[in-house]
Amino acid sequence: MKLSNLKSIYAGIANACGLAENVESENTVSIVDKILEGTFALDDYLSYRYFDEENNLFLSDGNVVGFMLEISPIVGVDDSVHKNLSHFFNDELPEYSYLQFLLVASHDVEDILNYWQEARINPDPLLDKITKRRAQFVRERAISFGVSDGRIARDYRIFVSFSQIIDTKNNGKSGITGFRDSFINKLESLQLAPRTCDAVDLIKLVGTMLQMELATDTTASYNPLELLSKQIVAPSVMQVIEEDQITCVSSRLVSRIYHIVIFQS
């Protein structure tokens, strides 16, 4: 939301409450209710609470504890990888747990470009100019929503999340960390380069999906003294949540999530 729009809303609430007048408005309650009708704080619907930095675990409502990994995009793998993981999950996946693979097609390509440009540092001004121009071209292709000529730049990333309700009295965290270590070893044996994600990774990932913006922000940080859910979304950004998509009002960008449905004949 633009600052001017936010200011007008606050001004409207102030007028309704009588803060901008000598006397309080007679219809204060009804006017405020009308202004705020249909709105709510998005972070109230997120269950994330804290991040255990010692064990790299996320703590959520209802004694739900979990972890998140990032692995290399699975491109051109054969059936052996699928079978290997299937056997592992059948034997090792804890009961009453939840495992999710999330493929994200992000328009934030800065990590890829930074890695690419660092390997192409050259004192030749002409080559340096070509490198910068190519990087700028990729950035333009990444944010050309609706006007693309078919050349779209995306950073494809795969995140794996695991969660389980634990018994806090019997230190149920140890079972989750044990499974995570075994899972990481399996992914490493399949050359999928697993990386354990922290609170900043979750803040960036969920924030991008819920409040999609063209500008990329790499300055996210985690404050252990504040609820994790309140650090994910910006309260000044408005979005329209529908059954099949989330629309960011200021950027007019739409986020959608797709899942696979298996039909049995």
Automatic annotation (TrEMBL):
The source's domain of life comes to Bacteria
- A Pfam family cross-referenced in the UniProt record is TraC_F_IV
What protein does this entry describe? Type IV conjugative transfer system protein TraC N-terminal domain protein
Which organism is this entry from?
Candidatus Megaera venefica
